[in-house]
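Our preliminary data section would be incomplete without showing what the modeling component actually yields. Below, a chain of 428 amino acids is followed by its predicted structure, encoded as tokens that our downstream tools consume directly.
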Amino acid sequence: MKQPSGRRRKARAPRPPVARRNLLGLTAALVVASLVVGYLLLARDDRTAPTASAKDGSPKRSAPRATGEPEWDGRTEVIGDGSTSYTGPQENQLKAEPLKPGQKPPQFVVFSWDGALQGDDGLFAHFRETAEQYDAHMTFFLTGIYLLPKSQKDLYDPPQHPTGSAAISLPTDEHIRTTLEQLSGAWKDGHEIGTHFNGHFCGSKGGGDWSTEEWKSEIDQFYGFVKKWKTNTGFTDIDPLPFDIEKEVVGGRAPCLEGQANLLKVAKEYGWRYDASSAGDFQIWPTKKNGVWDFPLQMLPYEGGKYQGLSMDFNFLYNQSEGETEGDPAQYPRWQQETFDTYMGGFNRVYYGSRAPLFVGNHFEEWNGGIYMKAVEEVIKTVCPKKDVKCVSFRELADWMDVQKPATLQRLRTLDPAQSPNWSTVVK
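Predicted structure:
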């Protein structure tokens, strides 16, 4: 996502606390607090939406993954005003199978993107192409108002904020067109479309302050913007999205990682199976909260393992340039290598240890000269081809987790991230 960018403001908050590796009692509240401060500084910038490019590419896989879904007869069922449709079961999905006795788990890696907007840098399309090259699936968290024209902004009634307002800029019409192209192509590639909700409000009156009814309103409006983009835009020359959005979305990530407690209270009402809105956990096998899988951002070995840093591009930005999106260019090579090394440190710790999934969160942004995009791309190229590694979407991981024996998962959760056990005693 090339989020709207314009004038930059230097962060005035102190650097967020980072945990030493042996401080396993670090509270998630400290991590979330640092993220919230930084997100506020960026999300509330007076930024202007960029003009989008018309790059698509629509890569297809030459070797689809196995799927247990029945074959589709080729008929498209248009839904509502023609904004969405049902085109059959999604292809190229990981086949979820229970572990056999003594079998080492795959090393799952999930790359996810907040916002999922195609900007003039073409990053959405670029990472689709990268994913196709390295047989990776990803999760794209769509922001609903990225399909809402500026002229129709008053259709958005955000919780606790004036009608038509948002903490981010609405897209241009061309921006909407190219984002729709990318969403369709991504789904056909086998990627997951999740939700990043709508207005990206953080802090006071943000998601952390919302009631369950206000979360329902935000979710319902998200669905509405996707289901009625043709009505709202007036576009008649673009095909419907190839999926039913209410069935496609099975999870999301809340802006600034705020409000998970009340969000989880309503998630199951929408048929959601996971949530990715928590932060600060060490690399352990996931568990469920309120009946849905909790897939948090994680603490990874930062600065050679001296500290732990959160597995999201923004956390690196905040630690390296104190929230300034255009820091000292002389530091870019060092910061990029530092980011790559941190991700690889987290990967290696579990790949040669507990095999707990690795979660990487990102934005389609050119912060600090695009070094975070470059670092993540290098991670994709390095880890996805490795033996036993499966770069999957959150939904594919949830599918796999659901078919495992509960007792096996419970034993996996007892492992230290770096612990490589006798697998015959763990997987029975």
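The chain has a mean pLDDT of 86. The chain has 13 helices and 13 strands. Preliminary results of this kind motivate Aim 1 of the renewal.
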